[in-house]
Design goal:
6-stranded parallel β-sheet; Rossmann fold; 192 residues; single chain; binds flavin mononucleotide; alpha/beta
Length: 192
């Protein structure tokens, strides 16, 4: 089974990102196309980028980079769970992306965003520009949650409505479809 890595892109105490990611992971496991790895940047705790060489060389000197590299290497597809901070995505997420290079290549990318009226879509547009530079292929279907606080229970569990459940399922199907095609490119890269 292919592996889907779901990256939680916010780290502040009390963040909405973790419960939203947990909902999406549960949805993905229920759908059953992927083995799901929840990669929470608040737990991974990467320092600000501190590798001496360009990541494309993969001459990593730090254990935290080697661990992050191995984690992303195992992914066949990636979903970024991101809020919108000042119309962009969080610096902690850019930092985690910049740490690596070929580990991201030729993998399908999906986005779960949330925020106010724009539902985090401005952050996603910025993210797409960055991940395509790393040869990721964004799927068109996405999950964009407007006014996410309305779906957050007092128990800290995110319970969205039916259209958002359906959006998650549609994005998962598309990630699976695209992963089938991109697998060929990743194999070719390994052989070359
Ligand atoms: C630094 C900061 C900037 C924010 N900027 C935006 C914004 O540009 N657009 C928006 O919809 N919400 C914005 N918000 C509100 C967030 O959508 C809301 O706080 C959300 O819960 C943040 O995600 P998190 O809880 O996972 O950190 C901002 C919040 C913070 C902390």
């Amino acid at each position: 089974m292919p592996t889907l890595t779901v990256i939680v892109g916010s780290t502040r105490p009390g963040r909405a990102g973790r419960p939203i990611a947990e909902w999406f992971v549960e949805r993905a496991r229920r759908q059953g196309d992927f083995e799901v790895d929840l990669a929470d940047l608040a737990e991974i705790r990467l320092p600000l980028f501190d590798e001496p060489e360009h990541p494309r060389l993969r001459r990593y000197v730090n254990d935290h980079t080697k661990d992050w590299s191995a984690r992303v290497d195992k992914a066949d597809a990636v979903v970024f769970v991101t809020p919108e901070y000042n119309f962009g995505y969080p610096a902690v997420l850019k930092n985690a992306i910049d740490y690596l290079h070929s580990e991201w290549n030729d993998k399908a990318a999906g986005f779960v965003s949330y925020g106010g009226v724009a539902a985090g879509t401005r952050a996603v547009q910025q993210l797409k520009q960055v991940v395509t530079t790393l040869r990721m292929v964004p799927v068109v279907d996405s999950v964009n949650v407007p006014f996410h606080a309305q779906f957050m229970g007092g128990d800290g569990v995110f319970r969205p409505n039916e259209p958002l459940d359906a959006a998650a399922d549609a994005m998962l199907s598309e990630l699976n479809r695209l992963d089938g095609a991109l697998r060929t490119l990743r194999e070719a890269r390994r052989v070359a």
